[in-house]
């Protein structure tokens, strides 16, 4: 493949930093743009000496003029705890960020991929969720800043395609976990692993019967790269996630087993609008990308536990808000 100049917004975050690694490994030049809202410099510190890597502090709600061939638009806090801290900024990041990156793509004739989310399905009534399902989203709840922001970003992507023939790709990412999640990220896998390793109580919200389907980060990045490399007629939206569904209680028990921790389990109220069930139908990803996840929850958790075990021996990395 010919080397390209690739922009990764949100590149200092959890998924973005892994994407930067993989793009550099493939021989591309990478421009990583991040405002460090939830991302951290240590996530990309190991790349700073690479002459094909550039790190730029920039907020995607502001226009950006750079020379790039491809854009992966990942900038947006993804953990409910963080996206609900400044909900107006979350919507602004999704919507203004999408417009700014689409305008850049249009100016440059660049191909652009949006990191959308399973949250566009809201609290789904259809199960598992296929791309044709329009979702069940509360437009005025505490999760709406994220869900509706991402839905509007999808709309913008498809309107830029219809109006300006822009080559777009939309990936609907389902819950993904792995090394480089921040210990204070607030999402369930990092919370449970950190709690188990510290011997603190595991905090299950609700009765733990709600489900999620967890994808290991290497599989997810592989799916994004495959989608970006498809021909222009493949736009998505396309689900990328692991279809093995677990209850949150099962996840807690597996984390306890794999860490050998003696942490207890404590129950907390279920947050408002927390989806009851979530599982991707990945038929399209299999057919169009030849992609299927390969890392089991068991193996992915072992990698993640090893990462956090080493991390927690060191001073805690710079705070995520
Ligand atoms: P993350 O919070 O680790 O990364 C998000 C990154 O975006 C951070 O580096 C943050 O500093 C940056 N950012 C936020 N607002 C910005 C702004 N206005 N300007 C510039 N940078 C900004 O989260 P993640 O898990 O790596 O998620 C990356 C993307 O994937 C997000 O768009 C998220 O919505 C999407 N996604 C992730 C998951 C998942 O399970 N990890 C699931 C669905 C969708
Ligand atoms: N959750 C939990 N304990 C935690 C954090 C989350 O039980 O410490 C639950 C949360 O209520 C939800 C599920 O785990 O039902 C996944 O939460 P997360 O924030 O990881 O992702 P999302 O809800 O966006 O899928």
Automatic annotation (TrEMBL):
Localization per Swiss-Prot or TrEMBL: Cytoplasm; Golgi apparatus, Golgi stack membrane
Protein name: UDP-glucuronate decarboxylase
Pathway in which this enzyme or protein is active: Nucleotide-sugar biosynthesis; UDP-alpha-D-xylose biosynthesis; UDP-alpha-D-xylose from UDP-alpha-D-glucuronate: step 1/1
Gene3D superfamilies in UniProt: NAD(P)-binding Rossmann-like Domain
CDD domains linked: UGD_SDR_e (cd05230)
EC number: 4.1.1.35
Family classification: Belongs to the NAD(P)-dependent epimerase/dehydratase family. UDP-glucuronic acid decarboxylase subfamily.
Domain spans labelled NAD(P)-binding: 7-303
GO biological process, one term: UDP-D-xylose biosynthetic process
């Amino acid at each position: 493949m010919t080397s390209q100049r690739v922009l990764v917004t949100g590149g200092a975050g959890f998924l973005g930093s892994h994407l930067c690694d993989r793009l550099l490994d493939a021989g591309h030049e990478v421009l990583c743009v991040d405002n460090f809202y939830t991302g951290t410099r240590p996530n990309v510190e190991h790349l700073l000496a690479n002459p094909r890597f550039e790190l730029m502090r920039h907020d995607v709600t502001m226009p950006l003029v750079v020379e790039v061939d491809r854009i992966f638009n990942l900038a947006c806090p993804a953990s409910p705890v963080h996206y609900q801290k400044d909900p107006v900024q979350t919507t602004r990041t999704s919507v203004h960020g999408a417009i700014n990156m689409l305008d850049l793509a249009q100016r440059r004739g660049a191909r652009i991929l949006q990191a959308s989310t399973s949250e566009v399905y809201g609290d789904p009534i259809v199960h598992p969720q296929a791309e044709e399902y329009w979702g069940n989203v509360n437009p005025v709840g505490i999760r709406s800043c994220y869900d509706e922001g991402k839905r509007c970003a999808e709309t913008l992507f498809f309107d830029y395609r219809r109006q300006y023939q822009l080559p777009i790709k939309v990936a609907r990412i389902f819950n993904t976990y792995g090394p480089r999640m921040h210990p204070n990220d607030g999402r369930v896998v990092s919370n449970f692993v950190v709690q188990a390793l510290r011997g603190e109580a595991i905090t299950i919200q609700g009765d733990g019967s709600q489900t999620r389907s967890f994808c290991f980060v290497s599989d997810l990045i592989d799916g994004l790269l495959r989608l970006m490399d498809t021909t222009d007629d493949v736009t998505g939206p396309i689900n990328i996630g692991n279809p093995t569904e677990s209850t949150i209680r099962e996840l807690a028990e597996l984390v306890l087993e794999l860490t050998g921790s003696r942490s207890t389990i404590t129950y907390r109220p279920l947050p408002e609008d927390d989806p009851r069930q979530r599982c991707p139908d990945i038929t399209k990803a299999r057919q169009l990308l030849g992609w299927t996840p390969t890392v089991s929850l068991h193996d992915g958790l072992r990698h993640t536990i090893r990462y956090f075990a080493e991390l927690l021996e060191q001073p805690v990395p710079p705070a995520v808000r």
